[in-house]
């Protein structure tokens, strides 16, 4: 899909973004907001970090839904991923000083645990044709309950002790480049990995035979089956991929850019799995558009920090609503988005 094609298919969303920018400009002029102090390199750096877990989960959910399975359990898998990453890193360290190697083992462990758990979800929804919404909500409730419970067993409280996070990767010379140097060459490797995942997801989906199979599995599974491709095998692969990506997203929150697992309230995931679903809907199932939507939500989340930095006094409860207001606006803009025709419909392979 070319840039022109994407723009043609997303005129409403792009027009909405343009209108929002114009509105923000008008409000900034009206209330004399220090725009130059709000939108700094540091702001964009924090936005990238905040967008990373949303984008990772959204790319996984996008692939699953493109193939015909709505993985509404992304939030739950992210919670389990965050717990697994912190627990594995802590256990591997022998409950002592946690090294960078321990943290990377924790990330891999989170991906593996959530991929295995998603196999069970895939079997329930694909083979046994369980209702995908009910199964996904069950995953969410399990994550909300099991996360704090397991943390209490391991650490004596619903949250883990403070853990280190993965160090930034600094690329010599390139890190000195203005703006881009700080954003991409003196950043968490998980942020850089996310950018690569977005690019690879776009190429696979729109430029490879397997990507066409994924799209056909969600749009016209009968035609794909007639062509000799196992529809359910494609769906299994994409659903397990979505769980693995959600697990990675949770690991990013816990030990990639965070400092351990937090099990209070809605846990440290705090609705990001649901926002990830909105992100790929706003991106019209395009990985690049999904990443852009993730940046939008990450930016609204970071506004609270930026307002405090420049001395703008607003109640924290009000500023904390910004990401959810953005979600409501986006949902209003993408009400036209056409989901794949066969989403939620089990498929019995023709013999």
Q: Would you spell out the secondary-structure blueprint of this structure?
A:
Blueprint: H1 3-9, H2 11-31, H3 35-38, H4 41-66, H5 74-92, H6 100-127, H7 132-155, E1 169-170, H8 180-184, E2 186-187, H9 189-207, H10 209-219, H11 221-226, H12 231-256, H13 272-282, H14 287-310, H15 316-319, H16 322-333
Features:
351 residues, mainly alpha, two-stranded antiparallel sheet
Mean pLDDT metric: 87
Return residue spans where pLDDT drops below 50 for at least 5 consecutive residues: none
H/E topology pattern: HHHHHHHEHEHHHHHHHH
Largest sheet data: 2 strands, antiparallel
Helix coverage percent: over 70%
The largest sheet has its strands arranged as: 1-2
* Annotation field: number of helices: 16
* Approximate shape: globular
Structural class: mainly alpha
Q: What is the C-alpha radius of gyration, as a whole number of Å?
A: 21 Å
Number of strands: 2
Percentage of residues in strands: under 5%
- From the N-terminal CA to the C-terminal CA, the straight-line distance is 34 Å
Description of the structure:
With 351 residues, this protein is mainly α. 70% of the residues lie in helices and 1% in strands. It is globular and about 60 Å long.
Question: What does this entry show, briefly?
Answer:
By secondary structure, this protein is mainly α. Helices cover 70% and strands 1% of the residues.
């Amino acid at each position: 899909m070319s840039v022109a094609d994407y723009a043609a298919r997303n005129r409403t969303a792009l027009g909405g973004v343009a209108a929002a920018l114009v509105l923000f400009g008008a409000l900034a002029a009206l209330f004399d907001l220090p725009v130059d102090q709000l939108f700094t390199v540091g702001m964009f750096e924090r936005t990238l970090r905040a967008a990373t877990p949303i984008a990772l989960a959204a790319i996984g959910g996008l692939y699953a839904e493109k193939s015909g399975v709505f993985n509404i359990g992304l939030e739950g898998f992210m919670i389990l991923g965050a717990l697994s990453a912190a627990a594995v890193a802590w256990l591997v360290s022998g409950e002592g000083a946690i090294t960078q190697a321990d943290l990377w083992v924790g990330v891999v462990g989170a991906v593996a645990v959530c991929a295995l758990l998603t196999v069970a979800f895939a079997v329930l929804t694909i083979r046994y044709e369980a209702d995908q919404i009910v199964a996904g909500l069950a995953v969410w409730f399990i994550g909300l309950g099991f996360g704090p419970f397991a943390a209490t067993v391991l650490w004596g409280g619903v949250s883990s002790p403070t853990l280190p996070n993965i160090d930034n990767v600094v690329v010599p010379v390139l890190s000195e480049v203005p703006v881009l140097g700080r954003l991409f060459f003196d950043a968490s490797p998980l942020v850089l990995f996310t950018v690569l995942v977005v690019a690879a997801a776009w190429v696979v989906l729109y430029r490879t035979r397997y990507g066409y199979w994924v799209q056909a599995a969600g749009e016209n599974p009968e035609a794909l089956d007639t062509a000799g491709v196992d529809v359910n095998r494609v769906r299994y692969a994409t659903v397990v991929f979505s769980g693995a990506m959600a697990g990675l997203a949770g690991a990013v929150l816990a030990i990639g850019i965070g400092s351990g697992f937090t099990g209070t309230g809605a846990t440290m995931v705090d609705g990001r799995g649901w926002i990830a679903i909105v992100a790929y809907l706003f991106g019209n199932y395009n990985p690049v558009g999904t990443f852009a939507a993730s940046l939008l939500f990450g930016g609204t989340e970071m506004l609270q920090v930026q307002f405090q930095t420049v001395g703008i006094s607003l109640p924290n409860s009000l500023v904390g609503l910004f990401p959810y207001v953005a979600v409501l606006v986006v949902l209003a803009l993408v009400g036209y988005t056409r989901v794949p025709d066969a989403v939620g419909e089990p498929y019995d392979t023709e013999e």
